[in-house]
Specification:
- This protein is of the alpha/beta class.
- The protein contains 17 helices and 10 strands.
- The protein is flat and about 90 Å long.
Length: 464
């Protein structure tokens, strides 16, 4: 029950859940169309099931994928029912948004709210019951010891102890450790003898403090015996980076990453960025006309302000904004440096005298940021991500760890944007929020930040 087997079992579970959800959607329609009229003859008839096929096509295959991203299929042995219910609610909200998107933009209609209520209730109960059954089956399997894979642990004594201590209940349910071989003190021939004696299917190497030559010799012995060798890749200790494996030119590469990996969630983020930016641009066009007219009437100079900002991994790009400052703003910056209220490389002051009156209103309402939707459409920015700083401010960053905020695309809004903005005067606090976003990123977190942005803009929280 390790690696590929767990992945196959997960995929089978997701297929089962897809079938359960499709059945519940069918049964919900059956209840509303056939059962309810028996008890309520005056109720209105609903369209046939064919009208609901598109809902089934959206919900049944994609709901398990969303649930996997919310951790619904992880750690079921110790997970509480309350946690499972909350993960289901999160998944239903995301799928609900997808269904609403289809209704608004594709004009597909949900013909009966009762069918939705029946189906959601039945689907949630079915998934909870399936999980409960799976949890009990896992516990019974652990208690009986049947079907476990026979393995040997090899490595250094303390490494093996730490490896075994880190094993979870689900892992113990799938393996049976028949022997532990300290290859630092015992010859590899002892490992070979143990392979013969116990007829194991694989050897797990906990070899953080073992010389590579010893590991190579032991792995070659396993290769000769036709026994799989699994090496725990924790011989490099990192504080933040998470290790994964990838392929490059046919070579297996151990990858340490501190940013979100390529995934369906990231793909969804990219799609939402482009579609969302396009929709927001169309909806905000009246504000563009107001901003352009106001700038023309209240200040001489161009409507738009363009500046070189640091993008993904520091790559420069031209960011667009509505101009809110007088034309001599950059030349006057040096005389205002003494009034800077933000420590570190960033320059910010309250009631900046370089901002003209209408520009101050544009900033307070965040309308000045709307042209950055063009940057999102171009792929330079995302809807959610750390705010992009001017290139010259990035060059003044002294702490290398703070540059990690550049490891993801900059965004139109971020945690800093919805938690006070200019109320935060400490650059380290600002960066800490950005790194918190990067380390805990999920598509769900992006949706929450987007949902919090509109109230923050309406309140004008920290804007100036």
């Amino acid at each position: 029950m390790l690696g590929r087997k767990q992945e196959i079992n997960l995929q089978l579970t997701e297929l089962l859940d897809s079938a359960l959800l499709a059945f519940c959607l069918w049964f919900g329609h059956f209840l509303r169309s056939e059962v309810v009229p028996v008890f309520m003859p005056e109720v209105e008839q609903i369209p046939p099931l064919e009208k609901f096929y598109w809902v089934i096509a959206v919900v049944a295959p994609f709901m398990p994928i969303v649930l996997e991203s919310r951790g619904f299929y992880s750690n079921i042995h110790h997970k509480t029912v309350g946690r499972s219910v909350w993960q289901l609610v999160e998944g239903l909200v995301i799928i609900g948004v997808a269904v609403a998107f289809c209704v608004v933009f594709f004009k597909w209609s949900v013909e009966s709210r009762a069918v939705v209520v029946f189906s959601v209730t039945l689907g949630a109960l079915s998934l909870l019951l399936r999980e409960s059954w799976q949890r009990e089956a896992l516990r019974r399997r652990m208690a009986s010891g049947k079907g476990r894979e026979r393995v040997i642990i090899a490595g250094e004594k303390e490494d093996m102890a730490a490896f075994l201590a880190g094993m979870g209940a689900e892992q113990w349910a799938g393996i049976d450790v028949f022997d532990q071989i300290d290859i630092m003190r015992r010859p590899v021939s002892d490992l070979v003898a143990a392979l013969h004696e116990h007829s194991v299917s694989r050897v797990l190497f906990a070899a953080q403090h073992v010389h590579f030559s010893k590991i190579e010799e032991a792995v070659q012995a396993c290769e000769t015996e036709g026994v799989e060798a699994w090496i725990a890749a924790d011989f490099f200790q990192t504080a933040i980076a998470r290790p994964t494996f990838d392929m490059l030119g046919g070579r297996l590469m151990l990858v340490f990453h501190t940013t979100p990996q390529a995934s369906w969630e990231l793909l969804c983020k990219a799609v939402v960025d482009r579609v969302g930016a396009f929709v927001l641009l169309l909806l905000s066009l009246p504000f563009w006309f107001v901003a352009m007219a106001g700038i023309r009437l209240s200040s001489r100079g161009p409507v738009f302000f363009r500046q070189e900002r640091a993008g993904h991994y520091g790559k420069p790009f031209i960011m667009w904004k509505f101009r809110t400052m007088h034309l001599d703003a950059e030349s006057r910056r040096s005389e205002l440096e003494a009034h800077n209220e933000m420590d570190g490389p960033v320059f910010k002051i309250t009631n900046d005298p370089r901002i003209f009156a209408f520009g101050r209103w544009l900033r307070r309402t965040s309308i000045d940021e709307l042209p950055q939707l063009i940057n999102v459409l171009r792929g330079d920015m995302s809807l959610v991500g750390p705010r992009p700083l001017p290139v010259y401010e990035i060059q003044r960053i002294e702490k290398h760890a703070q540059r990690r905020r550049l490891s993801v695309k900059p965004g139109l809004t971020c945690l800093w944007q919805v938690t006070g903005r200019n109320g935060i005067k400490n650059f380290e606090e600002w960066v800490a929020l950005d790194l918190k976003y990067i380390d805990n990123w999920s598509f769900w977190l992006d949706l929450k930040i987007l949902a919090q942005t509109l109230p923050a803009v309406i309140r004008g929280s920290g804007a100036s």
